[in-house]
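Running this now, will post back.
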Amino acid sequence: MDWNCDSEHRSTYHLLTHAPAIARKFDEAEHVTGDGGIDWDALEAECFSTTERLLARVARDLWNGSGAAPVGNLLVSLDDANFEAVVEAMRLRREWMAREDVPSGIAATSSRSTPKR
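Update: finished.
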């Protein structure tokens, strides 16, 4: 999988490989599907601690917005290393804002579907 193709891929990969609590669970060979998706159910099934489940939900949110990770939990549940990995992943996800071809005030649209709320 080309993890550098867009900010969704880069930010998700960063979190899954740099946040210590989830990095030891994520296995690219096992969790990346043949069509370039991520088997979120398989990954989340391996997450037992509150921190692991929260990081899996954040990664899923970065991927396509469907993880429903409560922001307040990030502040009270994560240690410094995992929190910093989340912050850096969010910075990577916002890369589209630095593009010159995105007009001011216009949100870029993701190529992935976002669930209706």
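Confidence is low (pLDDT under 50) at residues 105-117. More later if anyone needs it.
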